[in-house]
Amino acid sequence: MLTEFEQSQNQLAGTGQRFVNYLxxxxxxxxxxxxxxxxxxxxxxLVVTNPAMYYLVFFGLFFLYYGFLEGTKGKxxxxxxxxxxxVTNSGxxxxxSKALLRTLCRIxxxxxxxxxxxxxxxxxxxxxxxxxxxx
Length: 135
Prior knowledge:
Blueprint: H1 4-9, H2 15-37, H3 41-49, H4 51-72, H5 77-82, E1 84-88, H6 96-106, H7 122-127, E2 129-133
Antiparallel strand pairs: 1-2
Helix pairs in contact: 2-4, 3-4, 4-6
């Protein structure tokens, strides 16, 4: 069921835009990991040889990236490119805490499957958010 805001706006982002957002954002996160790791040669070796350290660095940046950008701007680099914005279901701007909750929901195993089920993606549903096209 659509909220009043969704019905009045009717500008929800499509699956294609979401996929582009995901690809761009993951590439940006990996580039940042490399940029951070290069000056610290030992860190690079540790991240490459120690899976636990890799996941710690990757997910730390993952949460910082989404939490900060979505929480303060409602947009990540991918969303800037596709001209979409994350808002609450009532159409209000995102908060950092709401963005962190949304990001936490993203790491649920098989969450990506929700893109193919016809309804909102789970990270939107569970965090009461939505991705809308910019006007």
